[in-house]
Amino acid sequence: MVPMMFRRGLGVAHLPSAAAGPPQAIAPGKSAIFLPADQYLHRGAPTEWWWHVGTLKAVDRVFGFEINAASFPSYGYAFSQIMLTDVANAKHYQRTTSHMPPVAVDFDNWAEHDPTKDWHVGLGSISNHLSAIQVVNPGSGYSATPTVTISGGGGSQARAYAVVAEGKITGVVLINPGRGYTSAPRVMISDASGHGAAAKAIRSYVTMDAAWGDPTQNMAITALLVDDATGTDVHFDLMMSQQGPPFLVWGTGAGPILPPSSGTHLQTNNYYYSLPRLAAKGTITIAGEAFQVAGTTWMDHEYGFFGSASQPVKWILQDAQLDNGWVLSNFTMGSKFELGKTVLSFVTLQDPNGVMYFGPSALTPTGKTWTSPISGLTYFMELKIEIADIGHPTTLTIKSLVEGQEFPSGPGDGVYEGVATTSGTFRGQPVSGTAWNEQAL
User: Fold this and answer.
1) How far apart are alpha carbons 293 and 291 in whole angstroms?
2) Phi-psi region of 375 (alpha: psi -120 to 50; beta: other; left: phi over 0)
3) 3-state SS class at 29
4) What residues in the chain have per-residue pLDDT under 70?
5) What are phi and psi of 132, to 5 degrees?
6) Gap between the terminal Cα atoms of the chain
7) Residue 193's pLDDT is what?
8) Sign of the four-CA dihedral 22, 28, 33, 39
9) Closest C-alpha to 317, from 295, 343, 341, 297
10) Contact indicator for 237, 208 with CB cutoff of 8 Å
11) pLDDT reported for residue 310
């Protein structure tokens, strides 16, 4: 599993003080994002990821989803996170899959870097039926690292090693997914010092593709997850096209984090923009049952510097698409949040004409909480956002549609990614809309 600090986040850009007043309009000339070039891979960036989230509907049936592909060259791995929430049935399917260099991921080429070519992002293989190995029984008594043998499935060359802690197999790292596996191969764990460990092959992938010229249009997004808890297959086949200009986080799309003398601009700045008005349609297939879906979804692209092992980033974030045409992203960072306690946060807004605003806000966790049975972390299912404005303040409530929407990594480690709704008043007028509730605590 991928450490929580390396999941989607905000970085630690320099922010205005709480005394800055209402959010201010940002001049377009201050943008640090240049499309289509910045939709492509940035070689030399210590982190980079693209992720799609949002609400899709099949008639009256509501689904929340995330499809995330990320690389961390400075730490030596990449990963995908895929999830689906079936709201009507209160079911949540999720999987995180690691991809190790040099075979499973090439950090310079896992996504297309040349804007004169078609845009592509990809982790995992559509054709190869081996992407990860899941431990189904940790066994006991292992005093040495056992041998992992992969056989069958029609392929070859796969290699993996087991991770041992306190006499148990806590994970199996796939360092080479091999090739030619047309079905799931068998995985055997053997060592005379222990017994009982068992593991199985998992298939998972993410691809994102679009024609060169304007890769914000007609993006083909495919993904497959095998649910970590139930083994249920969930497949996505979606087309997405942005309506309007990009959304620039902080109003400019860039935040300085480290002194310029520390490295290149990719090593010292955090870059972050979104496509918050994606007209999306396609198919979601759950255990063989297909649903034709459509909706307006949200893509984020973040790259550059993001945290460190000694200073992991903790945050709460909310995205909202309002029925008056405005979109916003609100966040705060810190290590401790309490129910009913208001904290300083920061909001980026975009009006229906594409004008960006940025400034302080207030965030209060309210209402219900949910405690994960796997990580033990307690998440907030309802949050209130307050934004000052001259004469007409804005107050919005974000509510998760289903409680259990976590990517768990183990005791004390997880991140909440949840489909939500929003309602309240915007500049004195009633509004509602779709939303996203994200927490890394």
Assistant:
1) 6
2) alpha
3) helix
4) 1-20, 307-313, 335, 390-391
5) -160, 170
6) 17
7) 84
8) positive
9) 343
10) no
11) 60
